[in-house]
Amino acid sequence: MNTDIQHYITKSNHTEWQPLIEKGIHYKGIFVKSLRYDEAAGRSKTILLRFEPGAHYPYHNHPAGEEIFVLQGEAIVEQTTLHTGDYLYTPPGFKHSVTSQTGCTLLFVVPEEVEIL
């Protein structure tokens, strides 16, 4: 284990937003920044997502659940609007989509890879 705390800090303000592309699919209007990349899993487990107004992430499943914190704006999950400061935990197997009419920035903790349905 690396004992240098600097190894574990992500300076997200110095990182560019990247288009969200998963398994070759480009989700238009959604951008990502990785906060914690898990080397063993080969994927990011903690990310920031930015939705432009009108952006939509399709119906999907989180086999190990997920955590969402709305940093800015509004996101719609299963016809429920989450506002700045709202937190949502979805348990394993909870299926849903995410849309933002106004745009938003979200903090996501995703222990396992998403399954698009």
From TrEMBL:
Residues 8-107 form the ChrR-like cupin domain. InterPro entries: ChrR-like_cupin_dom (IPR025979), RmlC-like_jellyroll (IPR014710), RmlC_Cupin_sf (IPR011051). It comes from the Bacteria. Pfam families: Cupin_7 (PF12973). This is Anti-sigma factor.
